[in-house]
Amino acid sequence: MSISMYASSVPPMIRSLTHLRNILEKAAAHAEARKIDPSVLVLARLYPDMYPLSRQVQIATDVAKGAASRLAGLEPPKFEDYESTFPELLARIDNTIALLESFAPEQIDDSENKTIMLPMHDKTVSFKGQAYLTDFVLPNVYFHVATAYAILRHNGVDIGKKDFLGALPISS
């Protein structure tokens, strides 16, 4: 039995972005409780040459919305990268999740062999749908969500692996 492209893409991306949202809410509460200017966390980075938390969220949401749209044969909506506060980052995640939830399985299923053209910097990269999802999209979403988690954990926010993974389904 094969797994559908929809089931392999949309639900895992929604799950990761939902956990990212919860982590950001904890970070905002952490900043408020400790009287830390929230921009300190929003602009925090793990290393000087890495993107700050805000950009990690922007990239994770861009990759997710782009993936569902491209696999469905649609042009991805553009989000301006202006977010500089926790409420703005949370709204961006909410908008991305709402977009992902608007896709039906039949829009994305059977896109394994669809050619996906992805503009990247000064060139365009071509993927087949399944390789695009497994080799580019999911690793990128997970990388940027994990990096956002790491930035916040490094800065003292009380989060752990359970916050990153969420409750795991129990099978009987």
Lay out the secondary structure.
Layout (H helix, E strand, L loop, with lengths): L4 H29 L4 H5 L10 H19 L14 H16 L3 H4 L6 E6 L2 E6 H26 L6 H5 L7
Antiparallel strand pairs: 1-2
Helix pairs in contact: 1-3, 1-4, 1-6, 3-4, 3-6
Commentary on this structure:
With 172 residues, the protein is mostly helical. It has a single domain, classed as Four Helix Bundle (Hemerythrin (Met), subunit A). 60% of the residues lie in helices and 7% in strands. Strands 1-2 form a two-stranded antiparallel ribbon. α3 runs parallel beside α4 and α3 runs antiparallel to α6. It is globular and about 50 Å long. The relative contact order is 0.22. The model has no long low-confidence stretch (mean pLDDT 95).
